[in-house]
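Most newcomers find our protein records easier to grasp once they have seen one. Each record describes a single protein and holds just a pair of labelled lines. A learned vocabulary of local backbone shapes supplies the integers on the structure line. Nothing more is needed to start thinking about how sequence determines fold. The record below serves as our worked example for the rest of this section.
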Amino acid sequence: MSELTTTDIERSFSFLLEPANQEIKEQFLQHVSVKQIPAGQFICWEGDVCAQLAIVLSGTVRVYKIGESGREITLYRIEESDSCILTASCILSQIRFPALAVVEKDVRAALIPALILREWTKKYDVWRVYVFELMSKRLADVIATVEEIAFRRVDVRIAEFLAGLAQEEESIAITHQEIAYELGTAREVVSRILKDFERANLISLSRGSIVIQNKQALLERINSP
């Protein structure tokens, strides 16, 4: 599906349905385009000029940073009706993208050209509110990520991460390196802590997967001093 639908507008741009915003809706439909982006494709590289703002209609995008050591940290994910705080900030301030963004699950996105978005945020209150609410919401997510890395023990963060994944099933298909990428730590640290969990009979390890054996005890680790 390559065109914007009424359902898309209802879910992601409900403010355009208000009678007072008819002109704004017409402008939106005139300038927006819809694109399908397959999993594995990079949307932005560090240092890119942000030519457009993508609002995800379906699928998932991972936004992350790579340090000088090669370690990765996931800043946040963009899912249905979300967009990227860093892209919005780059467009409004006309600076280059400071991270990387890759499609994790096939994405269908509405694209707004950067010049048009800047014009809309100057001209229309509803677009200013939309963009700044987006940025404030995501900024809180990024601050929470920084606090996690700075102030919480890695073993507690891994226990919480695994317990969250285990809400749907006890067997989790994930590698030690993928956990390290998510939590912004080294694979060796993750492997050591997972081995400790295995010795305590909280989990069992196999290549490419982790089986939760005692979720209650894993949850208790989260609150341990």
The two ends are 51 Å apart (CA to CA). The longest strand covers residues 52-66. The chain has two domains: 6-147, 152-222. The domain at 6-147 is CATH 2.60.120.10 (Jelly Rolls).
